[in-house]
Amino acid sequence: MSTGAINDTQMVIITGMSGAGKTVAIQSFEDLGFFCVDNLPPTLLPKFLELMEDSGNKMNKVALVMDLRGREFFDHLFKALDDFTETSWVTPQILFLDADDSTLVRRYKETRRSHPLAPSGLPLEGIQMERDLLEELKGRAQIIYNTSKMKPKELRERIISEFSANNKSAFTVNVMSFGFKHGLPIDADLVFDVRFLPNPHYIDHMRPKTGLDEEVYNYVMKWNETNKFLEKVTGLLSFMLPHYKREGKSQLVIAIGCTGGQHRSVALTEYIAHFFENDYHTRITHRDIERRKEQTP
Fold first, then answer.
1. What is the rounded average pLDDT of the residues 90-100?
2. Alpha helices (H) in 5-145, listed in sequence order
3. Cα separations in angstroms, 231 against 61, 131, 176, 235
4. What integer pLDDT is reported at residue 111 of this predicted model?
5. What integer is the mean pLDDT of 242-259?
6. Which residues are annotated as a binding site for ATP?
7. What is the pLDDT of residue 66?
8. Given a cut of 80, is residue 293 above it in pLDDT?
9. Which residues belong to the annotated binding site?
């Protein structure tokens, strides 16, 4: 069995709350050239996978909608998702669409539709039942959109931006420098504290400079403890990054923090990002590097 022709296969499983925008989502994937199937019973997922594999490269972009219309098959879905860990040529991404209860109730009233789980009852009763049933599936999702404040056009634009051919669900490693005195970055997945390293701030002529300046960069890098730290952290990340990617994570934010976010964290962020740039799409952000300029009267 040859799998080389479909190494670049994309599979997106679209699910979530009824009324959260799955119809708009599947239409958006169709516009992106995905082969789309609405309401595929999870019991057929293994067979569908075989069909994709047999097609070679003809079905290399697939989007499947699975929701509570097939609720009796959800145990099969979880088993099928677990079986994907043994499949090397495709890693499915679960896109879970959610919305606040009040928004979902309003949408049901606007469309005059009944909730599929409460056809003769109040929409809120069906929504609460559905939320409980989907809790485990939401926990497995790699991507969650809350569409409460999104118009259909905005949801469409977000999907096209994230899943377009140029992006192709690439795994991006975002390396960010920051200063602890300005607060932890709320979007960080991993945080490393480098305040134990010698600080160029206490050298007068280096104080106004940053880790982007060669003199400061070389000063940070010359210490044995810096080299030890970089050896250990790059080794740890070299182990972790492939696993994050295999789990379907679209990006990872690695935050490197020093006191002010000017010197040590900036230099080490540059080093770490360039260390991995040949294997991953990397992006560098220096969150607090301009803080000093902003605070200068």
1. 86
2. 22-31, 45-54, 74-83, 101-111, 123-133, 135-140
3. 39, 45, 18, 6
4. 73
5. 85
6. 16-23
7. 83
8. no
9. 16-23, 67-70
Which three-class secondary structure string do you get for 198-216?
CCHHHCHHHCCCCCCCHHH
Sign of CA dihedral 161, 100, 138, 131: negative
Annotated binding-site ranges for GTP: 67-70
Query: Does the pTM of the predicted model rise above 0.70?
Result: no
Show the tokens assigned to 222.
Answer: 């010359």
- pLDDT tens for each residue of 161-197: 888 764 444 578 999 999 999 999 988 999 999 999 9
Q: Which residues of 206-239 are buried (b: 16+ CB within 10 A; e: fewer)?
A: beebbbbbeebbebbbeeeebeebbeebeeebee
In contact, 216 and 290? CB cutoff 8 Å: no
What is the helix, strand, coil percentage profile of the chain, to 5?
50, 20, 35
Nearest to 257 by CA among 179, 174, 190: 179
Q: Does residue 187 sit in helix, strand or coil?
A: coil
List Cα–Cα distances, 278 to 36, 77, 169, 264, 272, in angstroms: 33, 36, 18, 23, 12
Lowest mean pLDDT among 99-103, 195-199, 214-218, 269-273: 99-103
Domain boundaries along the sequence of the chain: 9-163, 172-286
Contact 293, 246 (CB under 8 A): no
Assign domain 9-163 one CATH number from 3.40.50.720, 3.40.50.1460, 3.40.50.300, 1.20.210.10: 3.40.50.300
Instruction: Provide the mean pLDDT of the chain.
Output: 84
CB contact set of 137 (below 8 Å; sequence gap of 6+): 15, 74, 77, 78, 94, 96
Question: Within 13 Å, how many C-alpha atoms sit on residue 78's CB side?
Answer: 12
